[in-house]
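Colleagues,

For the teaching module next term, I've prepared a clean inverse folding example: a structure given as tokens, and then the sequence designed for it. I'd like students to try predicting residues themselves before seeing the answer, so please don't circulate the second half yet.
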């Protein structure tokens, strides 16, 4: 298993539709804007999972999409005055490949990848117990209480500055 930055869009869309359903225009837009915003978990040419990320800041989720008050407050607290960061927008791995350490390996890869691109912090919204456990072991700061789509998420933040 390896991580590949970018992927041919037709191949990704085919994988996504089989694994998750229709690719949301938001996710497709993020990847279309910069193919490096897609990282796929590959094995033997097959996609096992993926991550989509984007640059962000405490005021806007994405360009022109403002954050709500509570989200801004939590981010300001966790980031300690930093305004810009990368947000791990979507992280998903096929069920049959979970529990094999791929998540831990992904976070190691992604944090190094973001650091090398000059980013100083990673933010990830999650409520999955396995994802929370990985982030906690890796030293992510956390806050609870961002609501979206009827669910409440933890906001997890890791400084990449030494």
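(Answer key — instructors only)
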């Amino acid at each position: 298993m390896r991580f590949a930055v970018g992927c041919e869009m037709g191949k990704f869309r085919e994988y996504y539709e089989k694994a998750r359903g229709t690719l949301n225009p938001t996710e497709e837009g993020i990847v279309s804007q910069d193919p490096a915003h897609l990282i796929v978990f590959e094995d033997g040419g097959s996609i096992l999972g993926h991550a989509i990320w984007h640059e962000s800041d405490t005021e806007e989720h994405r360009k022109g999409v403002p954050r709500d008050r509570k989200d801004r407050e939590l981010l300001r607290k966790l980031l300690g005055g930093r305004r810009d960061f990368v947000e791990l927008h979507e992280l998903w791995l096929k069920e049959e490949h979970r529990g094999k350490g791929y998540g831990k390996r992904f976070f190691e890869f992604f944090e190094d990848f973001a650091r090398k691109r000059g980013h100083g912090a990673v933010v990830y919204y999650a409520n999955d117990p396995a994802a929370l456990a990985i982030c906690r072991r890796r030293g992510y700061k956390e806050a609870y209480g961002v609501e979206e789509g009827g669910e409440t998420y933890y906001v997890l933040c890791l400084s990449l500055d030494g």
